[in-house]
Fold Ribonuclease H2 subunit B.
Amino acid sequence: MSKRIIALSKECNCEELHIFELPHSTNINSKSKLRLFCSDDKIYQIKRQMFSKGCAYNKTRDASNEKYHYCSDSKPLKSGILTNADERRDGWLLEDGYFEFTTKYDLCFSLCGALFSKAKSQDENEYQQEPRQFNELELESRFLMTRDLHETLIDNHDKGWSNIPTRILQNSLQQLCDTIEEGGDTYYKMTPSKITKWLANKAVKVSRSLPASIPLQKDLPEQVAGHAKLVFACNILISLVPQPAYQNLIQYSDEEVNFAKAFQEYRKYLQDQAVKEREQQLQINAAMKVGMGNGNTKKKALVTKRPVVTKKVTKVSKGAIDGFFSKKK
C-alpha cells in the first residue's frame, strides 16, 4: 500500500485529517467535487499537482527529446520532496507523480453554489453568453436559524454539509445573508443581491493585487487600466462561482464601483484599438505599393538601340571598253 503525503499549510494544526467532499461551487458538470477538511474553525481544500507531465499538445515532441519519463501505465516516475535543504536525506520519495497540498477555502463560495445549484453549466464558455433570467433558487426564501439552514443544506444540496461545524457555517452566513433578530436569536436568509455585493467586494480586492501572470498591458491609459483590472478580476472568479452569480456580478454597480461600465469601456477600447491596427496595416500596405504598377515589382529591362549606318550603293556603269571583254556569241 502506497503512502499518501499531503503538504499542509503552516497554520494547519491537526494530527488527523477528516476529509469530506462538497459539490464544486461553479455547478459545472465536468468539474469534480471539492475535497475539504476543517482545522481550527477554518476550511481547507486539498488540491493535486502532477509532477513531470507535459501537455498533450507537446507529447510527441517531449517523447522525441526524452524530456519526460513514464511507467508502463503512462504515469510519471517517482518524484522526491526535499524538506530540509541542509540535510538532503530529510524528505520523502513519492511512489507516483502526484503531489497533494492544501490551501484555505472560503465556504461562502459553496454557499453561493448551493443557492444556485439548479443552474448547471457545461463549461465557463457559457458564462460569456447573453445573460439569462434565473429566478429558481434551491434554498427556501425565508429567514431561518443557523441550525435549520444547516439542515436545509444537508437535505436539499449535499450530505457533505453535515461535516461543517455550525460555528464555521454561521461565520459564512453572516457575510451572505440578510439577518433579523427576534427573541435573542438571529435568523438568516441568503439572497442573490447580498451574494452579488459580497462578490463585488471580492473582485475589487482581487483587482488591487492581480497575479503577475495576468497579461495586462503596461501602456494602457490610467482610466482604461482601472477598467481592465476589474474585468480580469471578475474573470478570475469565473472558476469559483456559478453562471447566474457571475452574470449578476458583471452587471453590478454602486457608488464605489461600476462593473457594467468597466466591461463596456474596456471592450470599447479593445475594439477601437483593433480598428486602429487595421487602418495602420492598410496604410502600410498602400505605402508599399506606391509606384508599383499592377503589383509587378520587377523593373523593365532597358533596350539600347544601336544607330544604323546607311551605306550608299554605287551602281555599276558600263564603259566603252567593257564591250571588248564580253563573250563572243
